[in-house]
Amino acid sequence: MTSSNQTSPYENKQAEHDVVWHNTSVTQAERAQLKKQQPVVLWFTGLSGSGKSTIANAVERKLWLSGQHTYLLDGDNVRHGLNKDLGFSDEARVENIRRIGEVAKLFADAGNIVLTAFISPFQSDRDQVRNLLSQGQFLEVFIDTPLEVCEARDPKGLYKKARAGEIKHFTGIDSEYQAPKSPDLHIETSSKSVEQCAEEIVQRLGDLSYLTGNQ
Ligand code: ADP
Q1: Is residue 124 part of a domain?
Q2: What global pTM score does this model have?
Q3: Which domain holds residue 175?
Q4: Which residues lie with the beta carbon below 6 Å from any ligand 1 atom?
Q5: Residues recognised as catalytic
Q6: Which residue's CA lies nearest to atom 10 of ligand 1?
Q7: Nearest of 123, 136, 122, 161 to residue 41 by alpha carbon
């Protein structure tokens, strides 16, 4: 049976009743204790070309160098594997983010500091991921770069193609981007280097006590 608002061809209503959650013997807190850190998902959001991947990579390297256990989930990479069946319609973007949220939650449950780099244009989707995670385990990181700057950078030539009509539903051009209203970290990249942006994020993580024990 299908419902009008069904989001996935694999939806299984029976699972809600018959599949029972099994608590694991080793807890998230115990896994995190071994890693001497506080698990958290750093959810980078911003326009294409704003610098999400570049800054997230720089942050991950800094964290790794200081002995933190991390994992970076990058938008394009995930679309080559887990989400290769999804396109760029609004519905597909919602499902893309839902799956990534669930994966990020698993990595955080393993005690890691997780970095995700996805445009994630809709506030409701980002809020949904926040709600998946425990209090304090989701930080929305707004990589704030004006459209003109992103378009001038155009690292993958995608804006050029979107302006030429070769790519449809391109965020910022013919698909909406909802900027975070109250991001946990607000990084303005236009007047700073990648290094400065990454350092700012690592500093904030330290200030917020996510890095205890390894530095
Ligand atoms: P996104 O992942 O948001 O699509 P990318 O990280 O792939 O963006 O691309 C951003 C581009 O902008 C890169 O080529 C990067 O070198 C360049 N860039 C210039 N200045 C900055 C900065 N301050 N922060 C991030 N990226 C910057």
Answers
A1: yes
A2: 0.91
A3: 26-207
A4: 46, 48-55, 117, 153, 155, 189, 192-194, 197
A5: 120
A6: 51
A7: 136
